[in-house]
Every structure is written in structure tokens, then in C-alpha cells.
Design goal:
The protein is α+β, with helices and mostly antiparallel strands and about 180 residues long. The chain has helices spanning about 5-10, 25-40, 135-150, 165-175; strands at about 50-55, 65, 70-80, 85-90, 95, 105, 125-130. It folds into two domains: about 5-45 and about 135-175, Hypothetical protein yqbg; about 50-130. The radius of gyration is 21 Å and the shape is elongated. This is PhiE125 gp8 family phage protein.
Length: about 180
């Protein structure tokens, strides 16, 4: 997350007038700014756990495309086998292809296929640690620009067009954009 003192410094909030009453609001703007940055780029910036639920494994050794990037670690892969028994795969033996500018894909261990699952929805659950351990400086700068924009334009209608973010936001986040189709 972004440090509250840094947000206040960026907004040029004079400490003599700051009684702390806007702190929760400012932290909410920071959360919204990072969420917007993630939506704009398709990249996870905050470190967190994510879960992907599937209706079964793909055939043979086909890849499973994950919905987030970057993936730090696959922590758990659970599935219900063809006999209806809950099983776990050894996550450390799975192969994770996490090249930049594409969503990561997960493969079974070398020379193996995905196990068969029960023919039921939600029979596979993949849990992963995603995001950056530390927020990249360019993302922090973009988020601060978004926070400043939201702080100054709190109403739905103002003299300025609130639909447009500062130009620097796109420039700072471009490096993290994942091309998406559809």
C-alpha cells in the first residue's frame, strides 16, 4: 500500500491544518487508485492470495492460463479425483511459465498429464500468491497522480472533465499493461 505520509506530502496537505480526519478517506483513495491501476494494466500490484476454480483439468498436459500476473508462488492445487476423493498435487513439482507481458500458465510436472477429475463443476482449486512484494516506484507515482485527481475532483460534475486521468498515469503504467483480447 502507499504510505499515508507520502499521500499527504503529494497532496501538499499542510500539517498545521491536518487533524487526521481525512486519513481514512485518503487511504480509501489509495486503495481505489491501486485497484484502478490493476484494472488498467491487468497486473496485480498488491501482494495477496488469489484462487482460481475450474471445472476440471485440461486434457493431457495442456496449460492452465492463470488470471493474474505476476504469480510469486503456487501454494495449493486441490482437486476431486474420478472416484470423488479430494486430492492435492505437489505444487512444487508443477511448472509455471511466468514470462513478462503474458498471463502465466501452469503445466503438470515434466512427462506427466493432469489427473482425471470427477465430472462436476468446481472440481479443481488453484491457490497462488500474486503481486509484487514491494510496489514499483512508477506504479506508486501513477497511483499518487490518481489519488490527487480523485482528491481534487470529488463531485460528479465539476468545471473539469473528471473522466480523464492525468496523462502521466498511462505513461507510468504502460510498461505493466498485459495485452488482452476480447
Amino acid at each position: 500500500m502507499i504510505d499515508l505520509a507520502l499521500i499527504k506530502k503529494h497532496l501538499r496537505l499542510d500539517s498545521s491544518f491536518d487533524d487526521g480526519s481525512d486519513d481514512a478517506f485518503l487511504l480509501g483513495l489509495a486503495e481505489a487508485a491501486l485497484k484502478l491501476a490493476e484494472e488498467m494494466t491487468g497486473t496485480c500490484f498488491t501482494s495477496r492470495e488469489e484462487i482460481l476454480v475450474l471445472d476440471g483439468f485440461p486434457p493431457a498436459a495442456a496449460a492452465i492460463e492463470l488470471d493474474w500476473t505476476p504469480v510469486q508462488n503456487i501454494t495449493l492445487v486441490e482437486y476431486i479425483d474420478a472416484d470423488g476423493v479430494s486430492q492435492e498435487l505437489d505444487a512444487e513439482t508443477l511448472r509455471l511459465d511466468s514470462r513478462k507481458l503474458v498471463y502465466p500458465v501452469l503445466f503438470p510436472p515434466f512427462g506427466q498429464s493432469w489427473p482425471r477429475t470427477i465430472a462436476e463443476p468446481e472440481s479443481v482449486t488453484i491457490t497462488a500468491e500474486v503481486g509484487f512484494e514491494a510496489l514499483p516506484a512508477t506504479v506508486r507515482s501513477a497511483a499518487l497522480l490518481i489519488i490527487g485527481h480523485l482528491y481534487e475532483n470529488r463531485e460528479a460534475s465539476t468545471a473539469v472533465n473528471v473522466g480523464e486521468l492525468p496523462m502521466g498515469v498511462s505513461m507510468l503504467l504502460n510498461h505493466y499493461c498485459i495485452p488482452r483480447i476480447g
